[in-house]
């Protein structure tokens, strides 16, 4: 478990950096497009399509580090009122359910990536840009999120078994 936790931590951080790079790329493309449009009176070809595909990559590659840092939305106004043993059981159930849904989405997204790659699917506008790199980024981001959810599930099961609270459980957002 310790090895899985360490490697998934490195992987999540690397994906966070990659997601930030995509956000930076989007920002640079949009600023360049605005400057060119203001100077020359027309947009740069393909910027809209590239930003659209890069945004999906930025979001889904950032999911693992968001899970690792406890940034996922979590509403527990009911759960916080439960006794600790029941709360730990609810955490195990919720993380298990999330992992199953994420795994199904990962498989479906890899299938979508494969279909896009095989068919040569592309986003057409002023430029024709293949969609498979973006679909691959979404699938890989979801796969690494599954690893993060597995780590969280193991921690939650241990907390349930040992009767302890998870010290590194993601914090809930206050509803004030």
UniProtKB/TrEMBL annotation:
Biological process terms in GO annotation: C4-dicarboxylate transport
Keyword Transport: yes
A GO CC term attached to the entry: plasma membrane
Topology of the protein relative to the lipid bilayer: Multi-pass membrane protein
Family in the record: Belongs to the TRAP transporter small permease family.
Entry protein name: TRAP-type C4-dicarboxylate transport system permease small subunit
TM stretches of this protein: 12-32, 52-71, 92-113, 133-154
Entry's localization field: Cell inner membrane
Main location: membrane
InterPro entries in UniProt: DctQ, TRAP_DctQ
GO molecular-function terms, A-Z: transmembrane transporter activity
Stretches assigned to the Tripartite ATP-independent periplasmic transporters DctQ component domain: 26-158
Keywords from the UniProt entry: Cell inner membrane, Cell membrane, Membrane, Transmembrane, Transmembrane helix, Transport
One Pfam family this sequence matches: DctQ
